[in-house]
Write a structure and sequence with these properties.
Elements (H helix, E strand, L loop, with lengths): L22 H10 L14 E5 L5 H10 L2 E6 L2 H13 L6 E5 L13 E4 L3 H6 L1 H9 L3 E5 L12 E5 L3 E6 L1 H8 L3 H8 L16 H10 L6 H22 L5 H45 L6 H17 L1
Parallel strand pairs: 1-2, 1-4, 2-3, 4-5
Antiparallel strand pairs: 5-7, 6-7
């Protein structure tokens, strides 16, 4: 497959910006794939595919821990080269293969027993057909940050890492094992801690905390992102003023670069968050409509209300 501009695979879509996983995310992902409450973990016979592997540090860690085969697919030659260096550094070249290729066109994905994805909402949807087919074959799916609504809400586990990142594991075998437990066992377990002691019910949030959460939620408070963007514009204006009058130095330039990065990262995150919430509302509305159609009734209004409320909130933030 030929390369496009700057080492990009020709015709390959950009699935997500490069955002290296933290050590905690890598550690939790390895644990998530190991033996759990509802079934056995992966082993030497498994094949792990990472669609958009970046520097492949995750695959190196999985290969070292479980001795399984791993394949990383990366469309950018720069990161593919970095991935090769990581594989060489950890001496797992006999287990980890890095491909400079289009992650949406993997011919031998049917070899996979595990698929890992750290993509944005749109890219997850673009791979819906491929991922759904793999899941139905019994492939374990791990999604970093965003849940895969088209696989249903019955993911086996959702783990929070480094206080921000959420990992979703979809595994049919574990889901069946989890579903076979009785309601009485689940209720008893939910009221007990890891050591068997009774856990007190969570405290209700104070009015101050509720207001604080509302203030920093860009979907409920349309002014927070405007305040942030306004503050960033004022900061840029001040820095440019200092540069124009010859007061700039290396520190001013560094602040400008950092401020630009912060500005674009925050706005990108808000767009992804908004898209995820809107997609969730659409999924709920579609599920309600399908359930009502199955019963021969009109669509349940709650789904439509959720979708319309979400759209109204999104319009406020635009």
């Amino acid at each position: 497959m030929g390369d496009g501009e700057e080492g990009i695979v020709a015709g390959a879509p950009k699935l997500a910006p490069f955002n290296p996983s933290s050590p905690d995310v890598i550690h939790r992902t390895c644990d998530l794939l190991g033996p759990g409450k509802h079934g056995a973990g992966i082993g030497e016979d498994d094949v792990v595919f990472d669609l958009g592997c970046g520097d492949a540090r995750l695959l190196c860690a999985v290969a070292l821990k479980y001795g399984c085969r791993c394949v990383g697919v990366e469309y950018d030659a720069r990161f593919a080269e970095r991935a090769e260096k990581e594989v060489e550094h950890y001496k797992v070249g006999h287990l980890v293969e890095v491909r400079h290729a289009d992650a949406t066109k993997v011919a031998d994905l049917d070899r996979a027993t595990v698929i890992f994805m750290y993509l944005n909402v749109q890219s997850n949807l673009a791979l819906q057909e491929v991922v759904t087919a793999a899941y139905r074959r019994g492939v374990k799916i791990v999604s970093n940050m965003f849940s895969l609504k088209y696989l249903g809400d019955d993911f086996v586990e959702a783990v929070v890492c480094d206080g921000i990142t959420r990992l979703y594991l979809y595994d049919q075998m574990r889901a069946k094992a989890k579903g076979s437990s009785t309601c009485a066992e689940d209720e008893a377990q939910s009221s007990l801690g890891e050591k068997g002691e009774e856990v007190a019910p969570p405290r209700e949030k104070s009015a101050f905390m509720k207001k604080l959460e509302w203030f920093f939620d860009p979907l409920r408070n349309p002014y927070i992102i405007k305040i942030f963007n306004g503050a960033m514009v004022a900061l840029f204006a001040l820095l440019l003023f200092l540069m124009y009058h010859g007061l700039g130095n290396i520190h001013i330039y560094n602040i400008i670069i950092l401020s630009l990065c912060l500005f674009f990262m925050v706005n990108w995150f808000i767009r992804e968050y908004r898209a995820a919430v809107e997609q969730e509302a659409r999924d709920k509305a579609a599920a309600a409509t399908a359930a009502a159609a199955a019963e021969g009734e009109e669509a349940v209004p709650e789904g439509d209300e959720a979708a319309s409320e979400t759209k109204a909130e999104l319009k406020k933030t635009n």
